Amino acid sequence: MTEKNLIIVASGNSELGQSVVKNLLTEDNFEIAATYRSEATVLNKTYLDVNKDPNKYCFKADLRDVEQVQQMIFKVAKLGRIWGIINFSGEATSKRLFRTSQPEIENVIMNNLMPAINLTTEFLKYVSVGGFTGGRLIQISSITVRRPRPGTVPYVIAKSGIEGLVRSSAEELGRFQITTNALRLGYFDRGMAKRDVPNEILETISKSSASRSLGMPHNLSAALNYLLDKNSGFQTK
What we know:
Layout: E1 6-10, H1 15-27, E2 31-36, H2 41-48, H3 54-57, E3 58-60, H4 66-77, E4 82-87, H5 102-130, E5 135-142, H6 153-174, E6 178-185, H7 192-196, H8 199-208, H9 221-228
Parallel strand pairs: 1-2, 1-4, 2-3, 4-5, 5-6
Helix pairs in contact: 1-2, 4-5, 5-6
């Protein structure tokens, strides 16, 4: 077992998730495990690039399924003490609501909200049953909760639900010194924004932001490191 505490990057095969995994591996403050749902070619390469075995640290799991989340945490726990989870699970739409089918709406809500619920529940069980104290749970939310754009209704509903989960679960998690926070990210230069938002709209958003740019993966590092730090035990929602 590793002497370093472990961080799980849930949906580490997403574009933003892969970038965060790479940054955390480079910083080498924690051991980093990552999950993927279907394909992990790029994620595997990220580990191989730093001479780590992806078969040891990458775990296939559908995070919408609570039993698969349980099994994943059980396997990761064999590597060492799980200190935190960063959840990048999610999916967006770019359709107006009246053009979005019921199954599409349900799919977006399911893919965003259920992983957040399952990871929160199972991490709490892991810490409480294991007799541990302390931990960090970071959920990824979106600026669209505050500033919705056309075509994002199901996504905003789901991310609002995640923020509600964070606020309402903070006290239960806090009994075990686990902090929980939601990072309400703006528009980044990769991932769902690049895939689902038309280029002309992204350009307008970029020019209207205070920094006159889209977010970059390294911009997340300081916030994540602060929230993951053992001394950040008071910052919780």
